[in-house]
Design a protein that fits this description.
This protein is an alpha+beta fold. The protein has four helices and 13 strands.
Length: about 180
């Protein structure tokens, strides 16, 4: 156990939609972080066409790459005046660690240029039936998750700490895990 695992991420929960402010705070201090964003249409008075702006997908969550020890990170987070907490495992009470590979997959699925993603909380993800699959074709090749069918449409579902992403996909792009 001696070494810290610096190739992982922490999920941080905040309140009152302050995830972007905390992201800015962390960026100013040299920490790599990620707020899942999507494009939203905003109507502005006096403009004919609506504006497309980036907004957080799920409020009150952001992800911090672990580049220092947990105690050093907590010290930096305590300097921020905005209330927040790192999500902990219910059983062990240790910070939940998300591997780099899981975060790469999550960031890929959360790309704001890909506009057909649906975001769910983890309870909704668990409630949806489906088979465990791996995507074998396309931009999400190699990502593992669950294939869920709604009428004649298929959706790939991937759950992360507190968040799930559901993407419409052809079932032919998936292979059932043995």
């Amino acid at each position: 156990m001696g070494k810290d695992n610096f190739s992982c991420w922490y999920a941080i929960r905040t309140f009152n939609c302050k995830e972007v402010a905390i992201s800015n705070f962390l960026t100013e201090r040299g920490f790599s972080n990620f707020v899942p964003m999507t494009y939203s249409t905003k109507f502005v008075e006096g403009k004919e066409k609506p504006l497309k702006i980036l907004v957080p997908v799920v409020h009150n969550y952001l992800f911090l790459q672990k580049t220092k020890s947990a105690s050093d990170i907590l010290q930096i987070l305590n300097e921020c005046s905005i209330p927040m907490s790192i999500i902990k495992d219910r059983d062990t009470k240790k910070f939940c660690e998300i591997s780099d590979s899981e975060m790469r997959e999550f960031r890929l699925l959360c790309d704001p240029q890909f506009d057909s993603s649906i975001f769910l909380d983890s309870e909704d993800v668990e409630a949806k039936p489906g088979k465990e699959v791996i995507i074998i074709h396309g931009p999400f090749k190699g990502v593992r998750g669950k294939l869920h069918r709604v009428r004649n449409n298929y959706y790939f579902i991937k759950a992360f700490v507190g968040i799930g992403v559901m993407v419409r996909i052809s079932r032919w792009y998936c292979q059932v895990e043995p």
